[in-house]
Amino acid sequence: MFLLTINASNIVARLNIVTRLTAVITLLLLPLFVQAQAPTVPSSSNGNYSVSWNAYYMFLEEKVGSGSWGSPAGGTAGTNTISFTSKASGTYSYRAARIEFYPYFYLFYSPVATTTVIAIQPPSNLTSPANDSDGAYTVSWNTVSGATQYQLQEKIGSGSWATVQSTSANSKAFSGKANNSYQYRVNACSTVYSSTRSK
Q: Under CATH, domain 120-199 is a member of which superfamily?
C-alpha cells in the first residue's frame, strides 16, 4: 500500500504557467501566421479611395510622404474601413494596429500599404462669349498641371451633354452655329485619371 499525495497549489501554479505560455505563444504567432495582413488600398488613385483592414486590428494609422504616423486626416469611417475624397497629390501609407494588454502590454502593427494620389484639378477660367451674332466663336480654358488631354462637352438648349472635343488643346473654335443657347463644361485628364468637370 502506498500513499499518493497531490499538491494542489503546485498543479495550479504549473497550469498558470502553461496558460501564460500559451497566451504568449498565441499572442506572438497569431499576427505572424493569421493576422499579418497589410491594409487594402489601391496602388494609385485620383484622390478618391477607400482603405480597409483586417478586423483583428483596432485602428488605422496614416503617414503622408516621409512624415510621421498619425490618425488619418479626414475620411468617412466605417467598420474596418475608411473612405477618402479629394486627397491632395502625394504618397499615403497606411498600417493597422492592435493593442494587447495580457499577459503584458504590446502594440502590434500590420505590414504597410501605400497609395499614390495623382490629383488632376478641373480647368479654371472657362470662357465663351455671352452673346454671338454669326454662330462663330471660341471656347477656351486654362491649362492644368499634369493634364495630357481636355474633354470639352456641350449642351444645346435643354438637351443632354455631349463631348465635342477630346484633345490636348485648351480651346475650341466653333462656326455655323444655329440660333440657340449653348453651355460648355470641360475636364482635364492625365494618362490615368480625370478631374471633376468645370462648373
A: Immunoglobulins (2.60.40.10)
